[in-house]
Amino acid sequence: MEIIPVPRRSLADFVAGKLAASILNGAIPTGSQLPPERELMKQLAVSRSTVREALKVLGDNHIIDARQGVGWFVRKIDQSNFARARELAQTEREEAPPLSRPASSDIPTGPRRLPVAPEKPLRIPNLRTDRLGTFDFISWWERKRVEEAKILIVGAGALGNEVIKNLALMGAGNLFILDFDTIEAANLSRSPLFRESDEGRRKAEVAAARVKELNPNIHVQYHHGDVTTQLGLGVVRRMDVIIGCLDNREARLALNRFAYWMKKPWVDGAIQELLGLVRVFIPGQGACFECTLNEQARRDLAVRYSCPLLARQNILLGKVPTTPTIASIIGAMQSQEALKLLHNMPVEPGKVVHFNGMINEMHTTSYNPRDDCESHWTYGEITELPASVHSTTLSDLLRIAAAELGPDTIIELDQELILSLKCSSCHTVEQILKPISEVSFESAHCPICGVMRETEMTHAITGSEPFLNRTLASVGVPPLHILRAFNAQEYRFYEMTGDLPEALHFSDFEESPPVRKDEIRQRIRLGETIRQEEIRINPARGKVILRD
Predict the structure, then answer these.
(1) Do 242 and 450 touch, CB atoms closer than 8 A?
(2) What is the pTM of this model?
């Protein structure tokens, strides 16, 4: 007689089957996002590890897809995954394995041991040597997730200083700091990472060096540039969380669109005097930043298109008065929201938290998403090209795209390309061929007549241009950028992945190993001359203190 083995199903299999059944019967619609892990744990009465194992089962069978930093989304059920989904759903109807909970009569009456959550083993750190040891006592804290996180901070002013400092203290492993400004005396009253000797230096560089000194275990990279024109989308694509510490709408709008295109969550913060706000934007979940703009703000931004040179120059005008206290409060809230996003904890996307320091009042308001919002667009599949913007020409990229899209292919640049400036008074024409970020408002005036000249510009490359031999970098395309190509039916997306080692490395201030104190003592002899680099403990120290 043949004995058929009794099937043994794990609890995770039954959870996966229950979710698969809900997807098949329409209770969880195609394209929708699954609830956060904590909510699933509560609804299904299982541990976090069980939920994660069940989600992995569904993901491995192509029933759901993970979007990094966002969550799990239900795929379309078709011939490729229907059979497996139905098989899992049948598992849900079998008898589930019992939960390992003792009956009340079995509970011992003697001494009891402290129970350990199954999803996180108890770890007793050495607080004398482990600078992050106390975080291990937090029930939801996942050290590896934080240490491996890649976080982009845009803006290294008052808010940026607080956010960068907080993330370094929390052990966030990889920080990319972007800012286009330099340090002046007025920054010292609200920026703890800056010193008087730093005046005139780049904010991003100094902040990166100081935070590396604050926590040598993290990895940092800085970029002195403008987020609207000098940040490659390939950098955004590889981030887990983005934090905006900005002071103007145009930069926020650019960052919002980049994050939405790449399907990345971002945390915005704003401060003025004793007032501040924090808001989280997640593509596809509620309103985005552009949805929050009123008609007057939209009209102000529209000036960029009627007179782009003047609008770009005016970004630097109008400093906002702030205090270090409100910067500390809002920067802490932004850092905390980023930490929650890293751990897939519940946040409130599309809402704003207002803090009024005058009366110590805080309240939350919801934004209404706009159906016609121009930011609500995400890139499709991205083709990684082993090419660099420094060597690839417009003709090269057009040829690559045309092989897939046909002869009517058009390359769309993110930045306007100024072709020429024509004076309507003396009729002189100056050929420019520069990205708009490199043409000032003053240079747009005629050197002979002094009047504002007419601007001829374009952002579409069709193949008929006489400058197709120009490299992508020369027309304003940043390294590791993702360019769009399209015809009448579809878009294609091409990343200049050859720029990856240059554009994203997180290795600034790590070129020399630290020197031990005992080695320093052995080198010093009475009467000897000791050079500064011989006694430097941290590779960041001295980089931003000593002047050349």
Answers:
(1) no
(2) 0.72
